[in-house]
């Protein structure tokens, strides 16, 4: 099993640019979670999907953030326009039937300059 | 509301010393899971252990051991004979079934093992 795959591993972009983070969950997993890690706020849930449907997006900081899951094997987290305060590590995780057997991806380190 | 508290922000120990990382959680749910994750300097989150709320047995895995006590809402983690490779940030997390099993993370404890 390849695990949860995130891309890119590192992203540096200029303020105002659009940024797209990608995640491929483990095959067969029906839950997908996006987390953000910052020094100030620690690890916080942004949004999660069940069977490709967003269930709780209350953690999405503002309208500049959007997430999609067009199919069971792919999800994106988009920031448009990006701001320096969006600089963080973004983790994707997946699980099966909501069972707490989380597998995290390696994360995407985003730097907005 | 769910909450995880890791009161120790940073700990430094000398190699071969034992160290205990504290974790206190809050939840009104009777069914929940507790986790420990390790985040080494490379940044990934490495799963260490999961316990469910109905299993208070302590667990030992090599140099690692966990003490789960529902009476004090604590799930502490002990590393015996610490090694430099144990240097990392350790996160305790709570997962509650009726909130989609999203994780509630503590703020982490940064452990430095000095050679």
Mind describing the biggest β-sheet of chain B? 6 strands, mixed
Order of helices and strands of chain A: EEEEEEEEEEE
Largest Cβ-defined interface: A-B, 25 and 20 residues
- Helical segment count of chain B: 0
* DSSP strand content of chain A: over 45%
Secondary structural class of chain B: mainly beta
How many strands in all of chain A?
Answer: 11
The CA-CA distance between the termini of chain B, in Å, is: 41 Å
In total, the number of strands of chain B is: 12
Q: How much strand of chain B?
A: over 45%
Average of per-residue pLDDT values of chain A: 93
Structural summary, described in words:
The complex is a heterodimer of chains A (113) and B (115). Chain A is mostly beta strands and 113 residues long. Chain A is 0% helix and 55% strand. Chain A is built from no helices and 11 strands. Chain A has strands spanning 5-7, 10-13, 19-24, 31-38, 42-50, 53-56, 65-71, 74-79, 88-95, 103-104, 108-112. In chain A, strands 2, 4, 5, 6, 9, 10 and 11 form a 7-stranded mixed sheet that branches. In chain A, a hairpin with a 3-residue loop joins strand 4 and strand 5 (42-50). The model of chain A has no long low-confidence stretch (mean pLDDT 93). Chain B is mainly β and 115 residues long. In chain B, strands 2, 5, 6, 10, 11 and 12 form a 6-stranded mixed sheet that branches. In chain B, strands 3-9-8-7 form a 4-stranded antiparallel sheet, with no helix packed on it. In chain B, strands 1-4 form a two-stranded antiparallel sheet. In chain B, a hairpin with a 4-residue loop joins strand 8 and strand 9 (74-79). The radius of gyration of chain B is 14 Å and the shape is globular. In chain B, 32% of the residues are buried. The model of chain B has no long low-confidence stretch (mean pLDDT 92). The A-B interface holds A 31, 33, 35, 42-45, 48, 50, 55-56, 89, 91, 93, 95, 98-104, 106-107, 109 and B 33, 35, 37, 43-45, 47, 50, 91, 95, 97, 99-103, 105-108.
